[in-house]
């Protein structure tokens, strides 16, 4: 979205839920992040090389970037006329304008002690563990550790390189392409070839060992403290079966591998990232008590990580599908049937205040549990209307058509309407997603 000055990229993408996040005037094609980190002192020295393409004539543009210190900025190898860094924005003013449609390269060298961004959703982004690091940025914490266009509508490919003390294991998105040890430090390099939203970019650092959990349909690997080996082996032994179920219902798993990290610390909730999920030690017990959570985070690889909303108001599409996937797995594994899960969660939601619009909950409530449960109930209503064969046929086609791309509520309705009588899907979504009152089953 351009500002009044036609050559100045806006310092916002106009998302009403995060109006200060995202930047206009360009799209990012690739991030190359070279990070040198000292775990013991929480010191980061880094260089970000960002390949972008102008969507308008640009004399000025901005990046989301929080509290780290900027040392140097170049654009296509030249120092810009001016840079300012304030209010979580790095603003760059050029001597020579970039033409609409041209590719350009931004290099930002920076350093400091990374810390999470604090906001209404808690601490987001780079966070120190007792002995290591966790990065979980949804919805706007990516700028805590690298300069970016921090909005899910602008997906890009990534290379992430991180050097730290050799006793630690490092995990990032994508495939590990090299690991080099020298003088007590190890450099880990990862490539992500599929377009990824910035909030899903992650670094995980810990004193972890690893174990392969399975190889079908892709390699599945767990990273965990050595003293948790037994419970990890038990609790994730069904991961391959979950992948098989979701692959049948949704279509092929969208990435080349899947990893789970179990931290030595306790965490409030599990967290998804592109190609991996993170659990706290409190989420595993060797008794399959967290199968629901494991299924939920795995489903996000399809819904959230491959298919990604382009506006945060549509968060029900991510969480509704992930919640519905919990119910699918429960039925598949001998637990409650879909019908029973639907009835039980409808009863629970009916007892809660009827003051939330699932399709537009507002930023304060966009992670409210009613978004998850009513979103799943809405999907089941569509399934009942279409019948199982047509519903899952439509779902697999929807996933394939939007693989590694953006989705919206309007797009969901339009797509599924093609499998139903005129107006039926629109009416269902209006009742379940845009009406405050919970419809009866």
Strand content: 25-35%
Intertermini distance = 42 Å
Helical residue percent band: 10-25%
Gyration radius, to the nearest Å?
A: 22 Å
Structure write-up:
By secondary structure, the protein is an alpha+beta fold. It is 25% helix and 33% strand. A seven-stranded mixed β-sheet has the order 4-7-2-1-11-14-13, with no helix packed on it. A five-stranded antiparallel β-sheet has the order 8-9-10-15-12, with no helix packed on it. Strands 16-17-18-20-19 form a five-stranded mixed β-sheet, with helices on one face. Helix 6 (369-386) runs antiparallel to helix 9 (424-433). The longest helix has 18 residues, at 369-386. It is globular and about 60 Å long. The model has no long low-confidence stretch (mean pLDDT 97).
Put the structure in a nutshell:
With 441 residues, the protein is α+β, with helices and mostly antiparallel strands. The protein is 25% helix and 33% strand.
